[in-house]
Design goal:
By secondary structure, the chain is an alpha+beta fold. The protein has 16 helices and 18 strands. It is elongated.
C-alpha cells in the first residue's frame, strides 16, 4: 500500500513529469552510444546552439547529453524482446522533450521530423544547425550515387534531395531517381535483366521453355532474342573501371567482364551447333548405309560380273565418308567463335556509346542467325567435297550416283523434300523447319503432341503457348519494353505500377543496409516490393485494369468538376464503366502474381520435408549445369507425355566466361544402373533409332511372338555353340549359302548356290515321320544337272531295309577307271535272290572273259 499511497498522495514538487512540458527540435550529431541502448547526442535548437556563432566551440558534440529515443508500442518491449534501437543517423532532424524540464539535461527523442531542405545545404554535406562538416562515412544508400554503390567514402550528398523524406515512385515534387537504397532508384526505371534484379525481365517475346521433342532448335529464334535483349539491358548499366576489361554494374554494384556477359550465349550457341552437327552426322550415316545397301543388292543381282576392285573402292569411299563425321565435331569451336566475335564487337560498340540498346539487340540476333546459316552451309559444302570424291571413285558402278544425287538434293538429309544441298538455306526459319521432325509413334498413329507448342513464359504472367489469343490477353496488362527514355520508356507491368503510383497511397521504409520495404496502394495497381541488401527483390502485385481506369477517372472527375454531388459522380462512373468495358463484364485485364529475382547465389537448407502443390505448370530454365543428388528412392510420375532431348554439347565457357576444357568435343551421354532394371512399354511400341548399337552382356534372353531382322549385314560369332529350334518351319532364302565346317572362311564371292567345305564327315539320317508318307522323299534339282564328286576314300551307299530304286529318263553310265591302288577298278553286283535285266533293244556285253553259270 505504500506504493499506492505514494501515487495517491504524491509529493507536490520534485518528481519526473511534475515540471512543465518543454519540447524541442534538434539535429542528431552522434549515435555511437557506448551503452548500445540506441541513445544519441542531439543538438537541440536554442538550448544547445548559439545564434551569435561559436556553438560547437562553446559546447562540442562530445559534451552533449545522451538523449533517450522512444520506440513505438507495437512490440513486447521487455527484456531482449522487440525492435533494436540505434536507427537514427547523424543529420536526422528530430523532436522531443526534456524529462528534467528547464534543466535540459535529460532529453527524450519522440520522433523524426520530415522537413524541406535547400539543395545548397544538402550539397555542402554539413549539419543544418551548426554548419559543421558531417564526418565520413555517412551510411545512406538511399542517396548514394549509382557509380559509387560500393564505396563507404563516397560523398552521397552530391545526390542531394530537397527534403529528408523517403523518395517514392510517382512523386510530383521529387520525381528524380535516388540511390540504390531508395524505393525510387534507377533500377525501377529501366528494364529488368541479369544486372538489374529490382524488376523481373520483360522480353519482347516469352522466355522459351524446354522442349524434349524439338530440342534447342525448337526455340532457337526466341531464345537468341531473349538472350540478346538481356545482354543489351545488362550492358547498358555498365561503366568502365580502372581495371582494363572490367566493368561495374551501376544497379547491383557487381563487377563483370565481357566474357561473363556472353557466357550464356556461348553455351547456348554451342548446343545449337551440336544439334546441327548431329543432324548432319545422321544424314551422312544414312548416305553411307544407302551406298552399302546398294552394293549388296548389286552383288546379289549380277553376281559374278562385278569387278572386285570396284567393290573395294566403294567400301573405301564409304569409310572415307564415315570418317568425315568425327572431323565435323572439331569445327564446333570455330562455328561458335564467328557469331560471338560479332556480338563482342557490337557489345563493345554499345559500351563505347556507338550504338543503342535496340540496335545491339537487333543486330546481335541477326548476326547469330547469319553465322549459323553460313556455317551450316559451310559444313554441307565440306561434305559435298567428300561426296565428290565418292562420285569419282564409284563412277564405274551404275546406281551409286543416283543415291548420292538424291542425298544432295535434300531428300534425305533433314526432311524429305527439303532441297537443302541444291538451293542452300534462305534463312533461320527454313533451317529450323528442317531439323524439327515429329516422328509418328506406333501403328495407332500416336505422336508427341506435347512438343508442338512454342511454350514460353513471362515473369508474373506464367506459361503461355504463344498463340495469338493468349498473347493478346497478356499484352492487355503486360505493356511493352519501350523504345527509349522519357515518354517512350518501358511500359511493362511493373513500370505501370511504379510510374503511375499515387504518392499519397504509398508506405515505404528504407534501411541502412540498402534494403527497403515498399507498399503501393493505388487502386488497380497495388504492389508490395521488398529489396534485400544483396539486391534480391520480391514483388507482389494485384493488377486490375478496370479498377485502375475507374480510379483515374474519378480523380480527374473530382478535379475538373469539384461541385458534383456524390450521386452525380456515381452516375457518371457507371456510364464510364459501361463504355470502358464495351458493355461487358469481362475482366481479362486482371493479374494476381508474385515474382522474385535473386541477385546472386540462392542456397537453402530444409531440415525437414519440402512439399509444394502447383496447380499449373512448373518451368525451370537453367543456363548452367543441373545436378540432382538423391540418397533415397526417386519416383517420377508423368500423366502426360515424357519428352527428353539431350544434345551433348560441350560446355564452351565456365561461369566466369573463361574457355572450358574440351570445349571442341561433343560429349557422350551415360546412364548407369547399379542394380536390376525393368522397363515396360505397356501395350505399345518401343522404337529406337541410332547409327550404331553395341550390347554387352553375360547372358541375353529374348522372348517375342514375332521377330524380324532387316539390314544389309548380319554377323553372329560364337566361341562355343549356336542352337536354332523352330516348332513349325525354318526357311532360308538367299541367292548364295556358304557352309564352312572346321575350316576358315574363304572369299564368299564364288558362284551362286550352296557351297559347303567340310573338314570331317557329313551325315544325314532320314527316318519316317508320322505326318509324311513312307518312304521319306528327297527331291533334288528336278530342272537341272546334279554333280557329286567324292575324294579318294570312296563313296558308300547302304540301304538297310527296303528297296533301292534308280530311275533314269536319259542315259545311265557307270565308269570305273581305277581303284585306290591305281589298278583297274572292278564292279561287283551281288543279289541274294533274283536279278532281272529287261532290255527292249540291244543288250551288249563286251569283256575279255565272260563266265556264265
Amino acid at each position: 500500500m505504500q506504493t499506492v499511497e505514494g501515487i495517491l498522495n504524491e509529493p507536490k514538487t520534485n518528481f519526473v513529469g511534475k515540471d512543465g512540458f518543454y519540447w524541442w527540435v534538434g539535429e542528431v550529431e552522434d549515435t555511437e552510444d557506448p551503452m548500445e541502448l540506441g541513445r544519441c547526442k542531439v543538438r537541440v535548437l536554442g538550448y544547445y546552439t548559439n545564434h551569435r556563432g561559436g556553438t560547437t566551440a562553446d559546447l562540442p558534440t562530445e559534451e552533449l547529453p545522451w538523449a533517450t529515443v522512444l520506440q513505438h508500442t507495437c512490440q513486447a518491449g521487455n527484456d531482449a524482446q522487440g525492435e533494436s534501437s540505434g536507427q537514427l543517423q547523424p543529420g536526422a532532424i528530430v523532436m522531443g522533450f526534456f524529462m528534467d524540464g528547464e534543466d535540459a539535461q535529460m532529453p527524450i527523442v519522440i520522433g523524426v521530423l520530415r522537413v524541406q531542405k535547400s539543395l545548397e545545404s544538402g550539397k555542402e554535406h554539413i549539419f543544418a544547425f551548426t554548419g559543421e562538416q558531417i564526418d565520413e562515412p555517412v551510411i545512406n544508400p538511399a542517396l548514394r550515387e549509382p557509380a559509387g554503390s560500393n564505396s563507404n567514402t563516397f560523398d552521397n550528398k552530391n545526390n542531394a534531395s530537397s527534403g529528408n523524406n523517403v523518395k517514392l515512385t510517382g512523386s510530383k515534387t521529387q520525381p528524380e531517381p535516388a540511390g540504390p537504397g531508395s524505393p525510387n532508384n534507377i533500377g525501377v526505371h529501366i528494364s529488368g535483366s541479369s544486372g538489374n534484379p529490382l524488376k523481373g525481365r520483360n522480353p519482347e517475346n516469352p522466355i522459351p521453355t524446354a522442349n524434349g521433342v524439338g530440342g534447342p532448335w525448337k526455340s532457337v529464334e526466341a531464345k537468341l532474342g531473349y538472350l540478346m535483349e538481356d545482354l543489351a539491358d545488362t550492358s547498358s548499366t555498365l561503366v568502365a573501371t580502372d581495371d582494363s576489361g572490367n566493368f561495374i554494374d551501376i544497379v547491383s554494384g557487381k563487377v563483370t567482364t565481357l566474357e561473363k556477359l556472353t557466357r550464356k550465349l556461348k553455351n547456348f550457341i554451342g548446343a545449337i551447333f551440336t544439334q546441327i552437327i548431329s543432324g548432319i552426322r545422321e544424314s551422312t550415316s544414312q548416305l553411307s548405309n544407302q551406298l552399302g545397301g546398294f552394293l549388296q543388292q548389286l552383288l546379289g543381282a549380277i553376281f559374278g560380273s562385278v569387278p572386285f576392285q570396284a567393290k573395294a573402292e566403294v567400301q573405301k569411299a564409304i569409310t572415307s565418308l564415315l570418317s568425315s563425321l568425327c572431323a565435323i565435331d572439331s569445327q564446333i569451336a570455330d562455328f561458335i567463335n564467328d557469331p560471338i566475335n560479332t556480338i563482342n564487337n557490337l557489345l563493345q560498340s554499345l559500351l563505347d556509346g556507338a550504338i543503342s540498346k535496340a540496335e545491339m539487340a537487333l543486330q546481335g540476333v541477326q548476326a547469330v542467325i547469319d553465322s549459323i546459316v553460313c556455317n551450316v552451309e559451310n559444313v554441307i559444302a565440306d561434305l559435298k567435297k567428300v561426296i565428290s570424291g565418292i562420285k569419282t571413285t564409284t563412277a564405274a558402278i551404275d546406281g551409286v550416283q543416283d543415291i548420292i544425287k538424291s542425298w544432295e538434293s535434300g531428300n534425305t538429309i533433314f526432311e524429305p523434300g527439303a532441297d537443302l544441298m541444291k538451293n542452300g538455306i534462305a534463312g533461320l526459319t527454313g533451317l529450323v523447319a528442317l531439323f524439327i521432325n515429329f516422328n509418328t509413334g506406333d501403328d495407332c498413329d500416336r505422336s508427341p503432341n506435347g512438343g508442338k507448342a512454342d511454350n514460353g513464359f513471362y515473369p508474373l504472367f506464367g506459361v503461355t503457348s504463344c498463340t495469338p489469343e493468349e498473347l493478346a490477353n497478356i499484352n492487355k496488362i503486360r505493356g511493352s519494353r519501350g523504345s527509349c527514355a522519357g515518354e517512350s520508356a518501358g511500359t511493362g507491368v511493373l513500370d505501370q505500377i511504379f510510374t503511375k503510383a499515387d504518392p499519397y497511397l504509398q508506405v515505404a521504409r528504407t534501411f541502412v543496409n540498402g534494403g527497403y520495404d515498399h507498399h503501393i496502394g493505388t487502386p488497380g495497381r497495388q504492389a508490395h516490393v521488398v529489396k534485400e541488401p544483396s539486391g534480391t527483390t520480391h514483388s507482389s502485385v494485384n493488377i486490375n485494369n478496370n479498377t485502375y481506369a475507374e480510379y483515374v477517372y474519378m480523380k480527374e472527375l473530382k478535379k475538373t468538376n469539384p461541385d458534383l454531388t456524390p450521386e452525380e459522380r456515381s452516375t457518371r462512373l457507371e456510364a464510364y464503366k459501361k463504355s470502358n468495358r464495351g458493355n461487358t463484364k469481362d475482366d481479362t485485364g486482371n493479374l494476381v502474381a508474385d515474382h522474385s529475382t535473386y541477385a546472386g547465389n540462392h542456397t537453402m537448407d530444409v531440415i525437414g520435408d519440402e512439399c509444394s502443390n502447383i496447380d499449373g505448370d512448373k518451368v525451370i530454365n537453367v543456363e548452367g549445369d543441373y545436378r540432382l543428388k538423391i540418397t533415397g528412392d526417386m519416383h517420377l510420375e508423368v500423366g502426360g507425355g515424357f519428352f527428353m532431348d539431350a544434345v551433348g554439347a560441350a560446355k564452351q565457357v565456365d561461369k566466369n566466361g573463361k574457355d572450358a576444357e574440351d570445349k571442341a568435343k561433343v560429349q557422350k551421354h551415360t546412364i548407369t544402373f547399379n542394380s536390376d532394371l525393368d522397363m515396360n512399354v505397356k501395350g505399345s511400341k518401343f522404337e529406337m533409332q541410332t547409327s550404331k548399337i553395341v550390347f554387352a552382356a553375360k547372358k541375353l534372353f529374348q522372348t517375342v511372338d514375332h521377330c524380324e531382322y532387316e539390314g544389309d549385314l548380319f554377323n553372329v560369332a560364337m566361341t562355343k555353340e549356336i542352337d536354332f529350334a523352330a516348332g513349325v518351319n525354318m526357311a532360308i532364302t538367299t541367292p548364295n549359302l556358304f557352309n564352312y565346317i572346321n575350316q576358315p572362311v574363304d572369299d564368299k564371292a564364288k558362284e551362286p548356290g550352296i557351297t559347303t567345305i567340310c573338314a570331317g564327315s557329313v551325315k544325314t539320317d532320314i527316318i519316317p515321320c508320322q505326318n509324311t508318307p513312307v518312304p521319306p522323299i528327297i527331291t533334288t534339282n528336278k530342272e537341272g544337272p546334279m554333280s557329286t564328286t567324292v575324294g579318294s576314300t570312296g563313296m558308300d551307299t547302304e540301304v538297310l531295309s527296303g528297296g533301292h530304286y534308280v530311275t533314269v529318263a536319259g542315259v545311265s553310265k557307270h565308269t570305273v577307271n581305277k581303284d585306290s591302288n591305281g589298278a583297274g577298278g572292278d564292279i561287283n553286283i551281288s543279289a541274294k535272290r533274283n536279278m532281272t535285266t529287261d532290255v527292249t533293244q540291244t543288250y551288249r556285253v563286251t569283256a575279255k572273259t565272260i563266265f556264265l553259270n
